[in-house]
Prior knowledge:
The complex is a heterodimer. Chain A is built from seven helices and no strands. Chain A has helices spanning 2-10, 18-34, 45-63, 84-102, 106-117, 122-129, 133-155. In chain B, helix 1 runs parallel beside helix 2. Chain B is built from three helices and no strands. Chain B has a domain at 34-70. At the A-B interface, helix 1, helix 3, helix 4, helix 5 and helix 7 of A face helix 1, helix 2 and helix 3 of B.
Amino acid sequence: MVVRYCRARLGRVSGQYHIADDVAQEVCIAVLSALPRYRDMGRPFASFVFGIASHKVADALRSSVRSAVPTQDLPDGPDDGPGPEETVVRYIEVEHARRLLARLPENQRELLLLRVVSGLSAEETGNVLGMSPGAVRVAQHRALARLRQMAELESA
Amino acid sequence: MTQERTGAGPAPEDESDALLDALGRGEPPPHDDPAARLLAALRADACRDGGADDVMSTHTWDDGVMSART
């Protein structure tokens, strides 16, 4: 869940998720380091984890240092993955999603990513974002409607 | 200000909630909903190459924290 969240927030660099995966690793280390100080306040543990993840992603976005990206070794055998055409179509669709999401207010964008990419419930998402489940339901409905409107306008 | 609903179907907010729950479980999006298709594509891409669906749920996390305390 944390890996997916970081990937969706940070995207690919040079076609790879190396930076997002590194940030996800930092989140896991930060969670482990903070664990002795964790106090159960009646909120799901996920809100504690994604609170840390959100800060780590924000730090990464702020620094946006694009250092050298390691590339995988050339494979010895045939690649079983999707072909070039399918890969490009998928890439275009994902970049389209990312571009439209970037035009939403930050709170709505974060909400949709936590709900869909991380798979959190409305209640868990509310705990991460400091919103009531009712407020999450209203905000996510508005975010979806806005995203639909933008997608339809672009395809018209 | 709230408006009284007169229709018999579920409230639009409930439909959106159910749709996002389904997308969050990795279920396929309705083909006539462009926003759902984009969100599903983003999720599917984040799941590739090591970001695959977890077997654990966040409830399992909570159970783990509880059992670590006892």
